[in-house]
Amino acid sequence: MAKSEDSEKPGRIKQLRMIAQIIKQANPKGMPIVFLSAVGTLAVVVVIGLVTGYLWYSVFIGVLAALTVGLVVFGQLAQRAQYSILHGQTGAAAAVLQGMRGNWQVTPAIAVNRDQDLVHLVVGYPGVVLVSEGPGNRVAKMLKAEKQRISRVVLGVEIYDVQCGDGEGQVPLGKLQRHLMKLPRNLKKPSVNEVKDRLRSLPRNMPMPKGPMPKGARMPRGPKMR
């Protein structure tokens, strides 16, 4: 058991180094920000300890607080860096959606047109969510067609359509997870599973897009729906 834990440590260190390189590539000031946030937290706690007369106790608490703050900032910067890397790639929204926590089922690219615009299918507590990638004037028809097709299978279930992109009225890639998390909870777990079963039989009537989808783009997990 000890050997397996020891073998995992180099892998974790290597992973952290890789993430640090990604942060540095996306934002050269990223790692200094992580370091300064941790040091600043430690300094504030130590000063409080000097004022109150609990110096050694504050040093211990300060180290723990500094590590916590540093890891939080590190995680946020890593998430932003990964969003910047995925931005503009075909299937970027699918990679972000597949990183969501909770009872979600994501089926990438249930529809695609000749311009490589995509529509992804998401099933969760809100019901059914169709998420598109591409300019609004092109994906609107795709979303409407898929909404009509799916509504025949999931009668009475709420169907939302979300356009992911940088255009007017669209949800930016970095805010996509949060947007879906804020949707109302219309279904309970048994109903969600029932809708998933219904949609598994739905044929995929469009070909997969050309070019590589962003596989293995391990997005940081978002918060669970409350």
Which labels suit this protein?
single chain, 7 helices, 2 domains, alpha+beta, transmembrane, 12% strand, DUF4191 domain-containing protein, 4-stranded mixed β-sheet, 226 residues, DUF4191, membrane, transmembrane helix, elongated
Work out the number of β strands. Answer: 4
Fraction of residues in helix:
40-55%
Q: Reading side by side through the largest sheet, how are the strands ordered?
A: 1-2-3-4
- Low confidence ranges: 206-212, 215-226
Structural class comes to alpha+beta
Q: What's the main sheet like?
A: 4 strands, mixed
Protein name: DUF4191 domain-containing protein
Pfam family, one: DUF4191
Region (Disordered): 189-226
Transmembrane segments: 33-51, 57-78
Report on this model:
- The protein is an alpha+beta fold and 226 residues long.
- The chain has seven helices and four strands.
- It has a four-stranded mixed sheet.
- Helix 2 runs antiparallel to helix 3.
- The protein is elongated and about 70 Å long.
- The two termini are 36 Å apart.
